[in-house]
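Hey,

The postdoc asked me to send both predictions to you directly instead of through the lab channel. I've kept everything plain text so nothing gets mangled by the mail client. Protein one:
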Amino acid sequence: MIHEIVFYIAAIWLTVLMVACAVLLLRARSLGSRVLALDTLVLLLVGLLVLWSNSEGVPYFLDAALVLSVLAFLGTLAAARFYGEGRMF
């Protein structure tokens, strides 16, 4: 019983934070703020996938979370390099 309550509170909180990051992503003026908001949004999505995987008992959501986190890391590195040096590679 208490596990279900904690799951629903965590899922609702992660969803609220994802909406806040999406609003920040759309309203931010600088490229650095948008990259940071997108990275935070992906991090929250990974957390939601891990939470969902634990509640459903299926391991393939963990695989999706791992792939998404690696792609987000590489995208953040590319965006930071482009933002800092003006070139991606």
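Protein two:
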Amino acid sequence: MSLRRALLWLPVVLYMALIFHFSSESDPFPTLTTHVWDKLLHLTEYAGLAFLVCRAFAGEGLSWPAAIALAVVVTSVYGMTDEWHQAFVPSRTSDIHDWLADSLGATAGALLCRAARRRQ
């Protein structure tokens, strides 16, 4: 793997690993989750992931429409697997509404990536 590809995909893998790590904990941020609506947290978390995934796909040479679409799909599927994973974690539940917030965040993050690249 080239250094360029590693710089594109390593942030994606690390971000996914962080999501998995915190999803493995029963209550990773109790103070935050008592003050912020959990759907907003899901939306923000997955917007960040989609931004990185979209950046990587665009860096691989995909067209912007393809990079955005694939970023949304990949991020949404990862959100689905994360919800399934949480079904096995004590004090956590699997919730379709969380997945919908993940998917909405994925769409926002991919579009934000495109908007950020236009400004450059």
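Summary for protein two, as requested: Residues 37-119 form one domain.

Thanks,
C.
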